[in-house]
Amino acid sequence: MMDTPIADFVRAYDKSRTARLHMPGHKGRGPLGCERWDITEIAGADALYEAEGIIARSEANAGGLFGSDRTFYSTEGSSQCIRAMLYLALQHRPAGTPPVIAAARNVHKAYVYAAALLDFETVWLWPEADSPLCGCPVSPETLERTLSALDAPPAAVYLTSPDYLGGMADIAALAAVCHRHGTLLAVDNAHGAYLHWLGRHPLDLGADLCCDSAHKTLPVLTGGAYLHVGKDAPAALWRDGKAALALFGSTSPSYLTLASLDLCNRRLAEGYGAELRRCVRDLDGLRRTLRDRGWQVLPGTDPLRLTLAAPEGLTGLELADRLRRGGVECEYADPEFTVLMATPDNAPEDLDRVAEALGENTAPPSRRLPLPPARGERVCSVRQALFAPHRTVAAAESLGRVCGAPTVACPPAIPIAVSGERIGPEALALFAHYGVETVDILE
User: Fold this and answer.
1) Distance between CA 249 and CA 252 in Å, rounded?
2) Which one of 73, 94, 378, 396 is separated from 203 by 20 to 30 angstroms, measured CA to CA?
3) Cα–Cα distance between 58 and 255 in angstroms, integer?
4) Assessment of whether the complete model's pTM goes beyond 0.85
C-alpha cells in the first residue's frame, strides 16, 4: 500500500493534543470541522519549498505515479505552476538567445501576468482555420514554419492542452518539432491530470515541462496542482524547480491541500485506472444517447469532457439554464457551447440527470461561425502595459486604445486582447459576443 506521509503526520499531530502556540490562529478548532488538520510548517511537517521530509516523500510518490523525472506540489493551482515553468524555460534557454516564448493564442491570463513579471516577448501561434476563443489548434506544420522563421529558438513552445472546450493538441508530433529545433515543450495541462492513466498525458508524449491542476479532475482540494519535469528534460529544470515555485508562491501553503494531494497518491495507486476507464465508458454512453436525441456533441475532446454545440435558436447559456433546472450544474457555457466535466467520483445517476434534463433536440445545427481571434497590433510589451497607469472604459469605446490589464471572465480566463496590444474591431466584436462590458486601457 502506498504511504501517505503528510496525511499521517497531520492526523498524528491532531491526536497528540499538543498545545498549539503557533499559527494558524484557529488553533485547530472551528466551525468547519477540518481546522484540526490545518497546520503550518512546524517541526516534522517539512517545508514545501525546501522539502526534505514528508513533503519530499509524498512528491516522490507522485512522481513515480506520473512517470516524471520530478513532480512538485503547488497549493496555489496551475497559475503558480505556469509562472514557474516559464521562469525555468527562460532561465535555462541557450546563452545569447532572447527571452521569447512561442505560444498558442488561447493562453490563460496567468500566462499574460507571467509575461509581465518575467518580461519576455511572445511569438503567437494562431489557428489555421476558424476557431472559437477557447480553441487554438496548432499543427506540426504551423509550428515548423514558425520556428524555422525565427533567428534563434525560443526558450520554449507553450501550449494549452486540453483547452477549455476539450480540444487536444498532437503533443507527440509537436514535441518532436520542438526538439528538432532545440527548444522545450511546456504544456498547460490544467484540465488533464488524469490523462496519464489513459496513456495520453503530455509527459507520456514528450513534453519537457507540464502543469496539472490536480483539483480539476482528481480527488484533490481546490488549489492542489503539480509541476512536472519530463524524464528527458535537462536536469537543471528539476534542480531549480522548487526555487521557481517559491518565487511565485506563498510561504504559508495550505496543509489541507497538501494532505489531499498526498492522499490522492494512494487513490491513484489503488485501482484508479479501472475507475477512470469505467467513467470514460459511461460518458461515451451519454454522448451516444445525446447524439441519438439530436444533440451535437463535439468529437475529439478529452475523455472526461462533454461539449455540446448549441443548436439553431438556442445558446450554450440557455442550455446551461436548462441543465440547472434539471439539477445539473455545468462547468462552462458561452453563446456557442456548454461544457460538462465528469470524473469517477460522479455517480451514474449524475449522467442520467444530464440526459433527462436535455431531452430531445429537433433544431438543426447552428449556422453561426466562430468569431476570429483578435490579432491586435503590439504597441508595447506586456510588462510596460501592466505597470503603466490605466483607466477603465466601456468596451464599446475602447477601439484604437491600448489594452492595459486583460479583462476576462473566469472561466475560461482567456484574454481577448493582450496587454500592450491596440484594440481593433475584431476585439470589439468579441467583447460584445462574450458580454465583456468594460475594458482596462492605458492612459
Assistant:
1) 8
2) 94
3) 13
4) yes
